[in-house]
Amino acid sequence: MNTLSRAFLSVHRKKGKSIVLLMVLLVVSTFVLVGLSIKYSADTAAQELRHSLGGSFGLVVDKSKSENFIASENQSSGVQYVGAPLDDSVIEEVLKTPNIESYNASQIGEAILTNANGEYLELVKTNNQYDDDETLLHTATGEMNTDSEKSSFFSKGTFQITEGRHILPTDENVVLISKELAGLNNLEVGDQIWLQSSQEKTSSPFSIVGIYEIKEPQLNAGLVPPPSLYQNRIFIDDSNGESGEYQRLEFYVKDPAQLSNTIESAKENANIAWDDFAVETADEEYQRTAAPLENMSALVSSLLTCLIIGSALVLSLILSLWIKGRIHETGILLAMGYRKTQIFLQHFAEVMMIAVLAFGISFFAGQVVADVTGDLLLQNVSAQTETIASDTASSLEVEITVRNFAAVCGIGTLVVAFSVGMSNIPVFRLQPKEILSKMS
Question: What pLDDT, on the 0 to 100 scale, is given for residue 211?
């Protein structure tokens, strides 16, 4: 009789022990499968968050470097910056760094708004404190951007485009205005307004390509002058930079998890005067939202390790008791000339016959447990860190995949082989005569 036949008969004959072993293997394989699936889903969700939330770092002039500032000859300007310029050459050099996918150059200034006839546009005001200053009443804050969608006002949801579109890097002489400003002056997308900067006497026409709505009210709006009101803020393209220099450069990375490494890599570029600039990182939203998923992935990894080691020990103990009860059978087989390898393979085949059935059932049982377990773990880990900032991470969709099932089968087979081997060692150390004498 061959090894498989003896194994099958042994499993069939000892139904009680086989059922106990089936239940143990089913519980272990189900929880290992669920654990692997939760870890895989958490890692996948964290990776998707990296791309959806993104991360960036900004370059600004380092104002702590007093040697880079001198008294300006123009008394109205106060001080003048004489350090390395934050210009297009810096953009070109930083973009050579791997993991950077885009950028936004920005600059803040003030502009007087007029129509084609040179008449002042009416701006929003919330008090009468500045009625004596005719210029101030018609001066707006202008924010220049390469891509207006990347402005913090839009990226953080303070403003939202309701008509038209955002400013693109290829645009020239275009502007975004608020819904309130458009209403006061009967303006709509496609109309033109004229802008005069505080340092120039001539005006330039700008076409309105978008109108935005304020989603988050401004704090203390009733106390601020007209240029500082959200309603009087305009956005223009970067083709109108007066000096070719910027106040801030924001660089967006492909993978926010590599933000620190990307910054360090960029700093290796000797063509950039890093001593004159300050680096500001912006990945708080990703860190806050992805933290529960990453913490859960680490927790599940630890639990899986403990579960696999524990299951191997428990299975070894059960099989040791099982094999001790079959010591007489083992002695007879050895006396008949069967090699220890053949006996090991028989015991291994017996357990694997039961394990295959347990693995199959765990594939279906795992899906029932997975979703509930995943959400409970995520909520528990989130409660120990911070409030989840995005609905993306408020629940975790766990799917039992063929890949994870194959991994469970592989891990289970190794655990069975280890357990069978460990449980057979005490018996295999004895000679056939010693085994038979113990039974007599």
Answer: 97
Distance set, CA 254 to CA 44, 275, 384 (Å): 16, 26, 29
Q: What is the C-alpha to C-alpha distance for residues 289 and 294, in angstroms, rounded to an integer?
A: 10
For the ranges 28-42, 185-199, 293-307, 374-388, the lowest mean pLDDT is seen at 374-388
Judge contact between 159 and 251, C-beta under 8 A.
Answer: no
pLDDT in tens, 303-336: 888 888 888 888 888 888 887 777 777 777 777 7
Q: In the numeric block, which tokens belong to residue 264? A: 């360090």
- 165 versus 51: the higher-pLDDT residue is 165
Q: Is the pLDDT of residue 229 over 50?
A: yes
Question: Average per-residue pLDDT in the chain?
Answer: 83
Q: Which residues of 195-209 are buried (b: 16+ CB within 10 A; e: fewer)?
A: bbbeeeeebeebebb
Tokens 């885009």, residue?
A: 102
| Model pTM score | 0.65
Are 432 and 335 in contact, with CB atoms under 8 Å apart?
Answer: yes
* Paired tokens of 114: 């007029």
Strand partners, 213: 160
Dist. CA 148–CA 191, nearest whole Å = 19
In whole angstroms, what is the distance from residue 201 CA to residue 199 CA?
7
* Half-sphere exposure (Cβ direction) of 277: Cα atoms closer than 13 Å: 25
